[in-house]
Design goal:
The longest helix is centred in the last third of the chain and has 14 residues. It contains seven helices and 16 strands. The chain is globular. It has two domains: 89 residues, Elongation Factor Tu (Ef-tu), domain 3 (Beta Barrel), CATH 2.40.30; 167 residues, Nucleotide-binding domain of ferredoxin-NADP reductase (FNR) module (Rossmann fold). α5 packs parallel to α6. The chain is α/β, with parallel strands linked by helices. The two termini are 31 Å apart. Strands 4-3-7-1-2-6-5 form a seven-stranded antiparallel beta sheet. Bound molecules: flavin-adenine dinucleotide and FE2/S2 (inorganic) cluster.
Length: 271
């Protein structure tokens, strides 16, 4: 689908709400809707620093929200910004999760992956889908979006922490396996989180013969297919256009999936 000029041009928008989620994670709401669908991303410009890709955590036609980890120059500066400040946004870009009304969906979320998974759950539960949301983190202090998932209809929340401080002790993918073992087969499994987690979801769902859609991230510059920085070996697809959400069949043909990615200069970096 061609990307409209309006989506490609950066425009500034005002921050209307800032919410501290955890020590390192902040959610920000902006005074705009870009008509984003769950799984799509925006390019967010922090004036004077840089422009970075961010998944859309929510776009209800009036406001758009993101949830981010403060890890480097751009996101650490963003985390200091306040209600009323301006940022640039371009987008929405990329593919999105696709489902049918009334399907049974299992959503596997790691890290900030909880935010786009919440966006899926909010939209899909309103369409009569039955949702199992499986949220994982290192420990209970790093879990995101639990209250939001709890507030949704037709949604069962499952929690996993590496250290066992809340919910299942171990990985969220273990909980997915347990769920599949009960015989309650979802029609589809969606996942967003660290690439190692995505590889595990890919393997489990391929073995169980359940369709899955995974959100794959690569270093992104333009966001709409121009620069080629986000192409993956050997398919050559651009993950800003043909992704970030890809079907498992596609992910399994990407030789670098779970093995390496490329930095801003195109150099290979092992995971
Ligand atoms: C499609 C997509 C969706 C994303 N959604 C989110 C989200 O919802 N929340 C969130 O916290 N993070 C998200 N990220 C990651 C986020 O873009 C990086 O954390 C951010 O760019 C870091 O920038 P920095 O300047 O603060 O840190 P830096 O110190 O510049 O970078 C830290 C690390 O972030 C990654 N990174 C930096 N710049 C980019 C870039 N232009 N493209 C891709 N990765 C980059 C690299 O792995 C780098 O090593 C997403 C990335 C992609 C590709
Ligand atoms: S980021 Fe430029 S082609 Fe994908």
């Amino acid at each position: 689908m061609p990307i409209s000029l309006q989506s490609r041009l950066p425009r500034t928008y005002r921050i209307v709400k800032v919410r501290k989620e955890t020590a390192m994670v902040t959610s920000m709401t902006f005074d705009c809707s870009l008509g984003a669908k769950p799984g799509q991303f925006v390019m967010l410009w922090v004036p004077g620093v840089d422009e970075v890709p961010m998944s859309v955590a929510y776009d209800d036609g009036k406001n758009l929200r993101i949830t981010f980890f403060a890890v480097g120059d751009t996101t650490k500066t963003l985390a200091t910004m306040k209600k009323g400040d301006l940022v640039g946004l371009r987008g929405p870009f990329g593919t999105f999760y696709e489902w049918e009304p009334k399907q049974r969906l299992a959503l596997v979320a790691g890290g900030y992956g909880a935010s786009p998974m919440y966006f899926v759950a909010k939209e899909a539960s309103a369409q009569g889908c039955a949702i199992d949301a499986i949220v994982g983190a290192r420990s209970k202090d790093h879990l995101l979006y639990l209250d939001e998932f709890k507030g949704l209809p037709n949604t069962t929340l499952h929690v996993a922490t590496d250290d066992g401080s809340q919910g299942h002790k171990g990985y969220n993918v273990d909980v997915l396996k347990q769920l599949l073992a009960t015989g309650e087969r979802p029609n589809q499994v969606f996942a967003c989180g660290p690439e190692r987690m995505l590889v595990a979801v890919s393997e489990v769902t391929a073995e169980a013969k359940i369709p899955s859609q995974l959100s794959l991230e690569r270093y992104m510059k333009c966001g709409y297919g121009l620069c080629g920085n986000c192409t993956v070996d050997p398919l050559g697809i651009r993950l800003c256009v043909e992704g970030p959400v890809v079907k498992n069949e596609t992910a399994r043909k990407i030789a670098e999936f779970g093995k390496y990615h490329r930095d801003d200069l195109g150099k290979k970096q092992a995971f």
